[in-house]
Amino acid sequence: MSTPDQPAAFKPPANDPWKGFRGVCSGTLILESIVVFLAIPAIAKLGEGVGAGAVVYLVVLGVVMILACGVQSRPWAMGLNLGLQVALIAGWFVHPAVGAMGLLFAAVWVYMLYLRKDIQARIERGLLPGQRD
């Protein structure tokens, strides 16, 4: 028991708060891969069309995003997610619309970093519902 002068001891949450966060990360990657795949016919209709190299680039990127959903419990998963955003922004050379799409999703992942920091701070302060008495 803690007294008013002494802070409460750290109590881990009853439920894993990171499980939901990992689910949001996986869901975001799935949605992002769908958008990448749908970009192929869209940019094929724009301007000069799309070359074979661009199609391979986008298909590989979309498949890697789907595969990345399975490693969200790893400590390096957020780094992989951010690296995928850099690769998508680099798609600007495939078509400017792909790069713009990358910038949009990069903003989503910056917000995810904020959420991750907020969850960690709440765990440390004992503010999650599973940590309260």
UniProtKB/TrEMBL annotation:
Membrane listed as a keyword: yes
Transmembrane annotation, as ranges: 20-43, 55-73, 93-115
Keywords: Membrane, Transmembrane, Transmembrane helix
Protein's name in the database: DUF4233 domain-containing protein
Source species: Rhodococcus olei
